Amino acid sequence: MTTNSRLLIVFFLYITLTIELKFSAGALLDTDGNHLNAASYYNILPLDWGKTLGGISDRVVAPDGTVSLVLDRSKTFAGLPVSFSNVTASSKVIERDDIVMVSFVLSKDKNIFPWVLIYDELAKVWFFSAGNPINYPGRQIKNGTFRISYANLGYKLVFCGDANASTCKDIGIYIDSAGNSRIAIDRPAMLVKFKKTRLF
Q1: How many independent structural domains does the chain possess?
Q2: 30 vs 45, 93, 125, CA distance in Å?
Q3: In CATH, what number is assigned to the domain containing residue 158?
Q4: CA–CA separation, 55 vs 44, rounded Å?
Q5: How far apart are the first and last CA of the chain?
Q6: Within 10 Å of residue 1's Cβ, how many Cβ atoms?
Q7: H/E/C letters for each residue in the chain?
Q8: How far is 145 from 169, CA to CA, in rounded Å?
Q9: Given its phi and psi angles, is residue 98 left (phi above 0), alpha (psi -120 to 50 degrees) or beta?
Q10: Residue among 199, 196, 194, 171 nearest 46 (CA)
Q11: What is the pLDDT along the chain (200 residues), one digit of tens a residue?
């Protein structure tokens, strides 16, 4: 075995060990390699952001005017800022499988719009929207918490009806009849990454 071959093997072992140490510690990292924390704001992007669709945003897609969370059709748009609040831990750092709340934060005044589930009677699917039950009178709504887990080369979000992990369901994409990529549960998990951002 040549010296160059040995050096290449050592290099790959170093990279593999570094990745394993980061992930084994439960750390969740943004695109800059920093820990996710509850004091910052992020865009949630598909793992292949820039190739097909943009980040998670909101859009009126239903005839009744209901706002749905979608992957933006502009592949260069990073989506709306979100915040994570840690429900069970006092630390600002968000780690793997921590129970968190997810909300859009739309201005420097910190107007917060929590993510909620709304049932679409026509599609027979639970979709994500943002706001409070009073914003959607007469609709079936579920409040709950979220967890972030490792998935392949990225992360996935899961929605939990309560603190029991057995109730958690993967969050994925439902393509509606108009071609909107709506964020929904009970779909194949959508792989995401988190890009730190500032409020508008």
Answers
A1: 1
A2: 11, 12, 30
A3: 2.80.10.50
A4: 6
A5: 56
A6: 6
A7: CCHHHHHHHHHHHHHHHHHHHHHHCCECECCCCCECECCCEEEEEECCCCCCCCCEEEEECCCCCCEEEEECCCCCCCCCCEEEEECCCCCCECECCCCEEEEEECCCCCCEEEEEEEEECCCCEEEEEECCHHHCCCCCEECCEEEEEEECCEEEEEEECCCCHHHCEEEEEEECCCCCEEEEECCCCCCEEEEEECCC
A8: 11
A9: beta
A10: 194
A11: 666 555 445 444 444 444 443 444 588 999 999 999 999 999 999 988 878 789 999 988 876 778 899 999 888 899 999 999 887 766 789 998 888 999 999 877 778 899 999 998 888 999 999 988 788 888 899 888 999 999 888 899 999 976 556 678 999 999 998 899 999 998 999 999 999 998 86
Q: Which amino acid is at 58?
A: D
CA dihedral 71, 76, 79, 85 (to 10 degrees): 110
Tokens of residue 3, six digits = 């010296």
Domain range holding 174?
3-197
What is the amino acid identity at position 113?
F
